[in-house]
Amino acid sequence: MKELVEVIAKALVDHPEEVVVTEREDGDDLILELKVASQDMGKVIGRQGRIAKAIRSVVKAASTRTDKRVTVDIVQ
Predict the structure, then answer these.
(1) Helix and strand tally (H, E) in the chain?
(2) Coil vs helix vs strand at 37
(3) Percent of the chain, pLDDT > 90?
(4) How far apart are CA 3 and CA 50, in angstroms?
(5) What are phi and psi of 18, to 5 degrees?
(6) CATH second-level architecture of 2-75?
(7) Is the CB of residue 23 less than 8 Å from the CB of residue 63?
(8) Which of 2, 30, 27 is nearest to 19 (CA)?
(9) Most buried residue among 1, 59, 67, 76 by CB atoms closer than 10 A?
(10) What is the CB-side half-sphere exposure of residue 25 using CA atoms within 13 A?
């Protein structure tokens, strides 16, 4: 899952070298934290959060093979 979020985010931003995805587990939940450069934050979130919602939808669909619930958090 981490690699999937990383590939999607790097395709969207102007500074792909600053994309960092960290992964942590909390019981049955898998939390992916996405950090990008501050000037790329708007590109990852999108208008009215549409791109962020799309990223979460793709990750949710890809996570159906696992027994974990995956959450994507976009942090600064």
Answers:
(1) 3, 3
(2) coil
(3) 87
(4) 21
(5) -100, 5
(6) 2-Layer Sandwich (3.30)
(7) no
(8) 2
(9) 59
(10) 5
